[in-house]
Write a structure and sequence with these properties.
single chain, four-stranded antiparallel sheet, 298 residues, 6% helix, mainly beta, 1 helix
């Protein structure tokens, strides 16, 4: 297993320096998996994506209270983090109270806030309107503070297998500054910065339905968020709402979601205005220069 991972890491690093390269995955009759940059009969093309899928629709939702002919529209935020919401009203007829049909607001954690009150322009006629709500976790008004991240794992040393702006999957706004660190499954993953756990996934096996696999998202005190992806099923040991410190145990590394091999995908994100974007960060010690665990590390 270590030899196969070493080969894959080498291919990834070579591809990052030479431009986009197609990587093939081949499983022989004995079930041994190999990776190569050359087409092989029976091999499948590896598709590299780390597109995070986090559904918060059930935790951030719009409700309407009707009383004496008046509609009050509320947003309930059950997350342990602020969320930015955008409410759009369309098809508005016989309605007062909507001078601006697009309303943006940041809703505090664990709160229920009224966005708008609608009343009929003509009392004897019914109001008519449609609503559409978007929500993104985080407060776009917060400013990130400089911080050097301790390594978010115990053990190693390990090697970076794909860095920022990697051509396989680190090219979208949400992941362009992420880092992938190759490591054996079961490696202890710890918090690299203190904060509040706001989202977890712990039940995914293999590729599953979420490209991120199992993950932990932590809100830091400056509004940024650290996200730890591709974790081992059932290993997440923290709960949403839990406060963690630097070095707190979070989970164990795995190979879940759209993962090319056992590794930790670590990214720092912030809300930049109804959109999550990754931001540059540095580890407190160089990772790229460390020897790979497959060639003599502990």
């Amino acid at each position: 297993m270590l030899e196969r991972l070493l080969i894959l890491c080498a291919l990834l690093l070579a591809a990052q320096s030479a431009g986009a390269v197609t990587i093939y995955k081949f499983t022989d009759a004995n079930g041994v998996v190999s990776f190569t940059d050359r087409p092989t009969p029976g091999a499948s093309v590896m598709v590299f994506r780390d597109r995070m899928v986090e559904h918060i629709e059930r935790q951030v939702r719009l409700t309407t209270r009707k009383e004496k002919g008046v509609d009050s529209l509320y947003v309930r935020n059950d997350l342990y983090a602020p969320v930015e919401v955008e409410l759009k009203l369309s098809g508005v007829k016989n309605v007062l109270g909507v001078s601006d049909r697009t309303i943006r607001r940041t809703i505090a954690p664990r709160s229920n806030e009224r966005l708008v009150v609608l009343s009929p322009q003509v009392a004897s006629r019914a109001m008519s309107y449609k609503t559409s709500l978007r929500s993104i976790v985080g407060d776009p008004q917060r400013s990130s503070l400089a911080y050097r991240y301790p390594l978010p794992w115990i053990g190693g040393p390990f090697r970076l297998s794909q860095g920022p702006n990697g051509k396989f999957s680190h090219f979208g706004a949400k992941g362009r500054y992420a880092m992938d660190i190759a490591m054996p499954e079961g490696t202890p993953i710890v918090a690299a910065r203190s904060g509040t756990v706001i989202k977890t996934e712990n039940e995914q096996t293999g590729k599953g339905s979420n490209p991120s696999g199992n993950f932990v998202r932590i809100l830091h005190d400056d509004g940024t968020m650290g996200v730890y992806l591709h974790l081992m099923k059932g290993s997440v040991s923290v709960k949403e709402g839990q406060r963690v410190s630097v070095g707190s145990a979070l989970a164990r590394s795995g190979n879940t979601g759209n993962s090319t091999g056992p590794h930790l995908h670590f990214v720092i994100q912030r809300n930049v205005g109804l959109a999550l974007e990754s931001i540059p960060y540095e580890f407190a010690q160089p990772v790229q220069s460390l020897p790979n665990f497959a060639v003599g590390g502990n």
